[in-house]
Amino acid sequence: MRVRSAVFVISSFALLAPATASADFVHVVGPGESLSSVAAADGLSVGALAAANGLSPTAELITGTGIQIPPQDSAAPVAVGSSATGDGDGDSDDVASSPAAPVNSATASVGGGSYVVQPGDTLTAIAARAGMSIAQLAADNGIDPNGLLFAGSVLRLGGSGSTTLVSSQSAETATASTQPVGAPAEGSAVNPPYPTPESVSPSEVGSIAAANGVPASLADAIAYQESGFNNDEVSTADARGEMQILPGTWDWIQQTLVPGGSPLAPASAVDNVRGGVLLLRSLLNSTGGDPAMAAAGYYQGLPSVERYGVYPSTQQYVNDVMSEAQRFGGG
What we know:
By secondary structure, the protein is mostly helical. It is built from 14 helices and 6 strands. It has 3 domains: 12-72, Membrane-bound Lytic Murein Transglycosylase D, Chain A; 75-156, no CATH class; 169-327, Lysozyme (Orthogonal Bundle).
């Protein structure tokens, strides 16, 4: 979303440096670094570091890109098949000595969801509540069913691959009445999302959109208009990624629109698209399903549109998006 301002492009993660090993910060990948070497330097497992960034544990890092280093206390290992006090069958005795946060049933019950591992969780319990086998859940997330789960890591539920989605349950009813505009939308230049040299194809964008109740052609048109399907794009207003989301707007999407509080990975092209799609869903909810008004809200911010009307630059943007939507198969 490109709310115009005088903010200039800042290489946000190049300005950051780790304060302590337990801090949550962004590390800029150096030549020859790998997930393994970065994880070892920060006292993390490869799996925890990969999960915090929406990456496969076998993914290769690209020099100059930023990856999120999660706090060590959020990556504390918990048993996969059993726990210190349980028998691994997924019932109440499989919780460690301190009570763990329960699995969010609304998130775990849907086929395309995701879940943030809590202290005391077991793979057995998560799989049972998600209606999956342990083997399927482990395979979908590339983890050892007899290994360790890490509190704070994200498990995909009900599917494999980069296009696995969370349920759109929250987005279906959410509105954009509190969508930030101006300085709140800009947020902090050092906060996510972070651009990465990758893309999500039009067909994948369309699949993500359809799964969240957004016309595929509209989402494709927005992604093309905003970045040309390039997740490395950063605008002069500091909007980032394939869907060009400002840091303040990203934070609002995380807090308001993401189902069950399942976090979007800060350096994931797929989650950048998911964030933009969830925003579009809320805009459609707020405009009676009007794609043109949703596009206007995406560009200008719906509260601004409702207060000041559609700016001329916004109208040109809407015209371009609607034309592209036709090209992508819109009615």
